[in-house]
Amino acid sequence: MSFKILGHNYIGGERSGEGDLQLHSVDAATGALFETPFLTATEKEVAAAVHAAEKAYPAYRVTTSEQRAAFLEAIADEIDALGDDFIAQVVRETALPAAPRLTGERARTSGQMRLFAKVLRRGDFYGVRIDTALPERKPMARPDIRQYKIGLGPVAVFGASNFPLAFSVAGGDTAAALAAGCPVVFKAHTGHLVTSELVADAIERAVKKTGMPAGTFNMIYGDRVGAQLVKSAGIQAVGFTGSLRGGRALCDMAAARPQPIPVFAEMSSINPIILMPEALKLRGEAIAKDLAGSVTVGVGQLCTSPGLLLGVRSPELNDFIEKLSAAFGGTAPATMLNSGGLTHYNGGVARLTQLPGVKVISTGGSSYTQAVPHLFKADAALLFSKEAPLEEEVFGPSTVIVELESREQLLDFAANMHGQLTATLQAEIGDLQGNRDLIALLEQKAGRLLLNGFPTGVEVCDAMVHGGPYPATSDARGTSVGTLAIERFLRPVCYQNYPDAMLPAPLQNANPLGLMRLVDGEQTRAVVG
């Protein structure tokens, strides 16, 4: 498949290039500029993209769940059809390996579209609740009351730097919003502009093939268009994956609008791993090897990378630290997504190195142009500092191990640590039985609790939670991975005393969709016909 890159914004099914400010995509390995410039959206074009989504919303939100499912499957087919030459472009922009990383990420991207198509056909996302009329009830009759969920309206989605496919143009936020019946205005990430255009083309082909309204999907380019997008009155929700600083700025903008809107932002997490004594006795060497791999996979550019390791002082922990140091010594420098990422990583490494009570105990080689893996050891007192320096995320292949004085000190930290995407226990059954109170604390602090695994690698499925208390995310009630993500872009609507024929199909007595429903307090499935 040959590609022609235009570099213009996607607005209402058309391409628009009115601006004169140019962006260039950069070869992540060499620093060379891609030839075609991308035109930053003007204020007029940002407004036009939002207006196109607003115009599409009334027609798109009333498409049937089957029609939207077919649309998502068409997007998935178009993404799967992007071949090796497409993957080569993504490799050039990101320095990520073609296989298994990018081929796997492409499959994940199309796979989550197909998963949401299954959710649409299943129908449970409607959340149907029906309380039928009780005209004879005393002292007051009860009216017929029925509830289901509809899409909020146009959603602004921001592309993430570290996943050019699965958290980008056709990523989880876009898939969830489109499944919910919400048109999308997508802000392309400047780190992979060519990739973004090629995936946007795939979505636009699916829009046309399935007859979805023009403006169902829109995409704009630019470094500074995000604020206008979030402040636009037509936008009803925001999806974001990125830094704490960026996510918090969007939250504050959205809250300050005349009509505040929700921002679902994934922002910062150090994903602590707690090392229990029995596990270290039995599996210390294997844990060390696998842990070094988890920290350095994807050059540490994963939101679930383990940035903090905790253990109570013991001979087994000392032995484990030696093994982990050796494992880190066997790692190698690698190219990050872009030069900005390397600069931030090196800055984070320098910050830790300069902290009193922190020392580097192992590195994976040396390089001026690539990210060098670092293993730090820090004094336990730093965990309880007001500045919480060990809870500041360093985005890259590094981690910090802390030797605690006692189990009580571990409980104290768990009770006060920041919100996290994940918390992991390396533990045997005896460890678990003696630490129920610790697990209870971790439940309050993390969105996903792991046992004897590593947080890197997030399964896309019904039960997954990729979220957590602030600052991991801006709203711990949701997830950005898994089918529950659709809930972020839905709101309940109640109908009282409406004639059956005037009700939305999921609420009608015959229930032509055959959905599971809560009727008068009992779950039931209506008989079709």
From TrEMBL:
SUPFAM superfamilies (UniProt xref)? ALDH-like
Q: Which UniProt keywords apply?
A: Oxidoreductase
Q: Does the keyword Oxidoreductase apply?
A: yes
- Any idea where the Aldehyde dehydrogenase domain is? 39-327
Gene Ontology MF annotations: oxidoreductase activity, acting on the aldehyde or oxo group of donors, NAD or NADP as acceptor
Could you tell me which InterPro entries the record lists for this protein? Answer: Ald_DH/histidinol_DH, Ald_DH_C, Ald_DH_N, Aldehyde_DH_dom, Aldehyde_DH_Superfamily, ALDH_KGSADH
| Protein name in UniProt | Alpha-ketoglutaric semialdehyde dehydrogenase
